[in-house]
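Q: For a teaching handout, I want to show students what a protein-ligand complex looks like in token form. Below are the inputs, and the small molecule is 5,10-Methenyltetrahydrofolate. Please produce the holo structure.
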Amino acid sequence: MSADVIDGKAFAANIREKVAAEVARMKETAGVTPGLAVVLVGEDPASQVYVRSKGRMTREVGMESFEHRLNDDVSEQELLDLVETLNADPKVHGILVQLPLPGHMDSEKVINTIDPRKDVDGFHIQNAGRLMTGQKSMVPCTPLGCLMLLRDRLGDLAGLEAVVIGRSNIVGKPMAQLLLNERCTVTITHSKTKDLQAHLKRADIVVAAVGRAEMVKGDWLKPGACVIDVGINRLEPEPGKEKGRLVGDVDFASASEVAGAITPVPGGVGPMTIACLLANTVTACCRENGLAEPEGLTA
Ligand SMILES: NC(=O)C1=CN([C@@H]2O[C@H](COP(=O)(O)OP(=O)(O)OC[C@H]3O[C@@H](n4cnc5c(N)ncnc54)[C@H](OP(=O)(O)O)[C@@H]3O)[C@@H](O)[C@H]2O)C=CC1
Ligand SMILES: Nc1nc(=O)c2c([nH]1)NC[C@@H]1CN(c3ccc(C(=O)N[C@@H](CCC(=O)O)C(=O)O)cc3)C=[N+]21
Ligand SMILES: [Mg+2]
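A: Here is the structure, written as tokens, with 5,10-Methenyltetrahydrofolate included.
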């Protein structure tokens, strides 16, 4: 193996330490405690684990955590009412509504009901528009975490060729926008892209956000490329095992023979997403209270 393995877990722990120090300072100097509300609709076990670990880490950095669990047969109006209540609650500085929502709900409407100043996911149309036009915004957590890892590894990204695989509103598009803001030359690829491998062969930076287990192979990559694997895919369990292994969208074994650096799954982008969610909550709370924003926690 030639690639350096990027330790997202350690990097994320470092960010959470910075967040914790900031939270302590805010309590002491301004008497405010940042609060994060997480809304989970339905009983999906994987989502419940994710919400629990977010809640634990929120409390570990000294912030307040508010968890709201609704049955999946709740009406859209009841969810909208809860969002409005959280918008009006001065103890809540960040609101995350876990996606995907049940099919009978209009996710766009729910997201756009969140007060954009409390939209720590950065999914509200105002935040997406602000990011696109270079105005101060809340930046989506997963792309922000990826950017932090890339900057740490590569320094100035200007002029580098970046290929983003996937064009979702929550990962691919904001990721591409952040890389463009860094003045990379950015290509966004997707399921209708004709020759993905031809694009990847030129890429100094690859961000894979597809949702297809181990799709990207090592011989598709430019030697020395920096590979950020966003995918979270659960394989079928091996015989006698209850749970399948967690893998990314990149075939780690072959890719690590060719890449210069690569994030593992688990232990790469996932922990960064949670750390950036906490960082965004601190940022939102500082803005709300007219406090100086900490360095190094935003894009
Ligand atoms: N680590 C973390 O913190 C997070 C991880 N994830 C994970 O990241 C992955 C992507 O998530 P998300 O963006 O929400 O997924 P979506 O399903 O919304 O988007 C997937 C994208 O991949 C594209 N795609 C599908 N098949 C191919 C293919 N064969 N070649 C090229 N592109 C393809 C799709 O193209 P098209 O648009 O044409 O259909 C689409 O744009 C998932 O595994 C998810 O679990 C997500 C969020 C956070
Ligand atoms: N409104 C909203 N915002 C999101 O940011 C959001 C969402 N909905 N819905 C689901 C996806 C997925 N996502 C993950 C975040 C962290 C890990 C994570 O911490 N993963 C760990 C390990 C997980 C494990 O071992 O089970 C890791 O990769 O090391 C995974 C997945 C955020 N998402
Ligand atoms: Mg996110």
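A: Two things your students might notice: The two ends are 32 Å apart (CA to CA). The chain has a mean pLDDT of 96.
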